[in-house]
Amino acid sequence: MAARNITFISDLDNMRDDYTLKVCIIRLWRSFSESDPTVVKSIEMILMDEMGTKIRASVYRKDFQRFDSKLKEDDAIYIRSFTIAPNKYTFKISDVTSKLNLHGQTTVHECLGFQYKTKYEFCFVSFETIISATTTSNISIDVIGEVVSLGKLDSRDVSKSKHRLTLQIRNLEGLQVNVTLFADFAYQVISYLEAHKQVGRVVIILQFARLNVYNGIPSVNNYFDHTRMFINADLPEIVAFTDRSGNLSLLVQFTIRQDIDWYYDACSNCGKKVDRRDVFSGPDSGDASVVVECSTDKCKKKEISSAPRYKIPIRVQDDSGTITLTLFDRDAYRLVKQRASELIEKIKQAGNSGNPDDIEIASHETKSLKDAISQTGDNLTPSMPDKLEATSPFKFNSPPNVKKRNVGDTIDVDEYDNVNSSTKVPRLNSKVDGNTVLLFVVFSIQTFIVLGFFLFLISI
């Protein structure tokens, strides 16, 4: 077979059927009958020759037994005596206008000497093209990006084919696009994350994906089983992407500022902010005692105590603008590794020694810092999803809705029901007199993506 003349896909002529192709099966799936979803109608393939040209091929039901054992994804094969037909499928995987049909006279043999230009010959489209929706939705696209946000699986429909998972991926320039994965593709991502809870970064490639525009918002979707997905695969493209994106570096430095709140006194019973007032023993008495009061119905008639809880304002910045968030007690403790009361005492001691600049707050792994806060668009969400642990390298939110913000935009919510959750951002007025310790955290990425992370802490 190797001695035969090999024809490239671009040289095929549908007036002949005696060609020999040397190709690799870069995608293989089974197409099911529309009338009976349990019946396989055909075996579908995307073939690629040594020039990187791709073409679609089919094996119909009557020939399954002849070819099923010979056709495996990622195998290289010789194919001879196939028929060439017009490609009438709406969704095109290449600009080749023909497709191949394998039939009873077709022969298939293993090929051991296939010379790849690249393994899958990806044709990545720019994120600008996706965002502007200038590409045609009936032509497949390839995308690569780091997962930065993940929604919850929508499995409400009885049909698994309609179960979907939304996420966002980011390119090396910091642009983000929405991705929606359906059916097995959604479950493949979830399974990967559950099996790799300590992974530091998730980079995916979607090959033969489709651009979809819904309500004016573009997203990348898998197109049934035509699409192929790679998650942190050992591919040169993913390795190069990871290397170019660089490592997040952490800089922690301290300065002194005035009058910036970083904690508040919380009711030990309900967690709400308490009020403090002075009670004098008599009208002419100069002696006063401090009474702690909680105004909630649950605590009005109870004797309560209070304890300081973190409420740290954070400034997050990238190339699209700046946003103000608030870090509450549980997540702040995961970063600082000290309770608010412990840090207050430490700041007091540093102030008494005359060295307020010498306060040490331990820095942590990049992954931990990223886990501590979950934010996309207008929704500040808990960092712990339903099933996946908080060691995941990106944010969890539902639904994902990327919104570009101008500098100065903020999030403020006046209600706050649970000090152990970062789902709401309160506006609180507790202050501590004296100097303020500013913890300034900056993430610097090689690709000029800058994430400014400001944690403001006040000394007494």
TrEMBL record:
Keyword Transmembrane helix: yes
Keywords of the record: Membrane, Transmembrane, Transmembrane helix
Any Pfam family hit: Rep_fac-A_C
Residues that span the membrane, as ranges: 437-458
Replication factor A C-terminal domain ranges (all copies): 255-349
Domain Replication protein A 70 kDa DNA-binding subunit B/D first OB fold: 7-111
PANTHER family named in the record: OS03G0429900 PROTEIN (PTHR47165)
Protein name, UniProt field: Replication factor A C-terminal domain-containing protein
Record organism: Lactuca virosa
